[in-house]
């Protein structure tokens, strides 16, 4: 399967409408990919905290609508990255969305670990409280968003639900690039999943520099593709069977012993 990671810059002076139009032109260059992945809150701008309220949208809003159009045009899955979602009760969430080639939404995930270090995300957004795994041509697929990379128990929760591929939209600053590279590799090896991690680039509000280096890491820890710090597409060819192959040749997940296998809430059978 062919994956396209699209690193997006979200400069403060560009409106979300102009950004969607510009990004749409880059998405069109991904023709031939089976899955196109975008970063976290690229349309609103992750660090545009003052604008979250105004730029919040529902799953019927302009960013997901654009993703649905792009998916149909390309005949590919499009992971729209995440949006500032306004929920039915008015609460705001950081919600990741996957769209199938026919334009239907097949997976959503509300970021559980909202970020509060040099960030107003934790003050402005409500944390999600649910994990879901959806069947896809890339295997059972889940998502975690950016800061969630630091919380392995969330990832183990996805594995327990059957995930074999995990998409990670991110707005991870360049200041902690080493952590980004370490955690994306570590989660892939530890959870024996294919990690498809798409980061933002450029300079956002407050002069924060986003780190890029979007990457695809297989469950053996091989980095199949890694972008630089420029805006644009990075392509990667992935063997669809790689997760099953690694899990059967090196069956670490089968050897789990904690919580105790026969205890309530103990290790589920995989
Ligand atoms: N957007 C984020 O969640 C940023 C997370 C981050 O910078 C970090 O964990 O470090």
UniProtKB/TrEMBL annotation:
One protein family per Pfam: CN_hydrolase
Coiled-coil segments on the chain, per record: none
Entry-linked InterPro entries: C-N_Hydrolase (IPR003010), C-N_Hydrolase_sf (IPR036526), UPF0012_CS (IPR001110)
Domain CN hydrolase: 1-240
CDD domains reported in the protein's UniProt record: nitrilase_5 (cd07583)
Gene3D superfamilies: Carbon-nitrogen hydrolase (3.60.110.10)
Family: Belongs to the carbon-nitrogen hydrolase superfamily. NIT1/NIT2 family.
Protein name, entry field: CN hydrolase domain-containing protein
Source species: Streptomyces graminofaciens
């Amino acid at each position: 399967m062919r994956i396209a990671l699209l690193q997006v810059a979200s400069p403060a002076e560009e409106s979300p409408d102009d950004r969607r139009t510009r990004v749409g032109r880059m998405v069109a260059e991904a023709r031939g990919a089976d899955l196109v992945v975008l970063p976290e809150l690229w349309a609103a701008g992750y660090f545009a905290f003052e604008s979250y309220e105004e730029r919040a949208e529902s799953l019927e809003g302009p960013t997901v609508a654009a993703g649905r159009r792009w998916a149909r045009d390309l005949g590919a899955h499009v992971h729209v990255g995440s949006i500032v979602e306004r929920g039915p009760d008015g609460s705001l969430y950081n919600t990741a969305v996957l769209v199938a080639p026919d334009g239907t939404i097949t997976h959503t995930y509300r970021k559980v670990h909202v970020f509060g270090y040099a960030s107003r995300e934790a003050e402005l957004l409500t944390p999600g409280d649910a994990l879901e795994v959806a069947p896809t041509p890339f295997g059972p697929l889940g998502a975690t968003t950016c800061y969630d990379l630091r919380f392995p128990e969330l990832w183990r929760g996805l594995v327990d639900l059957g995930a074999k591929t995990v998409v990670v939209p991110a707005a991870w600053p360049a200041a902690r690039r080493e952590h980004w590279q370490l955690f994306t590799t570590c989660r892939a090896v530890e959870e024996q999943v294919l990690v498809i991690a798409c980061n933002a680039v450029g300079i956002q509000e407050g002069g924060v520099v986003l780190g890029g280096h979007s990457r695809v890491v297989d469950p053996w820890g091989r980095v199949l593709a890694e972008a630089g710090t420029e805006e644009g597409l990075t392509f990667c060819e992935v063997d669809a069977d790689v997760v099953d192959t690694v899990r059967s040749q090196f069956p670490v997940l089968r050897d789990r012993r904690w919580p105790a296998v026969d205890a309530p809430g103990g290790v589920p059978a995989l």
